[in-house]
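We modelled the chain as a single entity of 322 amino acids. Its sequence is:
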Amino acid sequence: MTNAAVALIFGVTGQDGAYLAQHLLGRGYAVHGTSRADTRASAVNLLRLAIADRVTVHSAAVQDFTAVRGVIGALQPGEIYILAAQSSVGLSFEQPAETINSITAGTLNVLEAVRQLKLDCRIFHASSGECFGNTPSPATETSPFQPVNPYGIAKAAATWLVANYRDAYGLFACSALLFNHESALRPIRFVTRKIVKGAIDIAHKRAETLELGSLTIARDWGWAPEYVEAMRSMLQQDQPADFVIATGVSSTLREFVAQAFAHFGLDWERHVISKSAEFRPIDVMVSVGNPARARAALGWSAKTTMPDLVHRLIECELASQC
């Protein structure tokens, strides 16, 4: 017997985990989460959203099956969200083993724990548009997986694991193929935050230049708080199904940079340097998703596209809060 009003978020202290916790609390859930780090030190995002005292955080690494099974068994949650993993594409080239293990083994541990415990709960897995690799036309749920980096490879494997457990064992388990979604809760290593902070520093005379990699890559950028709404909606459906969650519009990094610098009346070309040292070993040149199924089945569509996203990120960065 599960507790329908209890939600367990693996990776609750990350960007998506924190916004999802905020969303679920607003819906009346008792929210529990896990973090592999010391819970006090890792709760920065929960503190920024002023919900740290309303979320119970358990110390558990998703790669540790005993810990995963223990927290699921103790809570008997009605809904489980798998968001815990190394989440940076760039960092996945430097830490491929950590990336692949945290994503694939972590997802498998949650699925297997639910199967062993015979829980009648609903499982959400945060997959990625990186599974598709280059998408010259917007990717749908049936587009082939062609990942080009360790992160995308791991997410593709985890997505297939979720589908396998759904089909083989009858679990209510689904994956959201999430395209890029940003907020001020992103760590500085993410390029969107790096650009926004760089533009602010240059505008305030704290820096003269900003070094970036390729400016020709194109991404489908959305606003993270909107994307967590789709996560919960997926678990409210009668049958489990995978969905592409995206804006459906791609913009180049050059356009993103220009928008950020224009906010301060700056000419980005006078300050931004594209350096080969910042390039990835291999990169997706165009990434865009088709959210038609999510719009039709979930009633979900992104409200914020790139220009407004840049404005929001700047305002949040200047205020140091969201």
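As a brief sanity check on the tokenised model: Residues 3-181+221-245 form a domain with the Rossmann fold fold (CATH 3.40.50.720). The mean pLDDT is 93.
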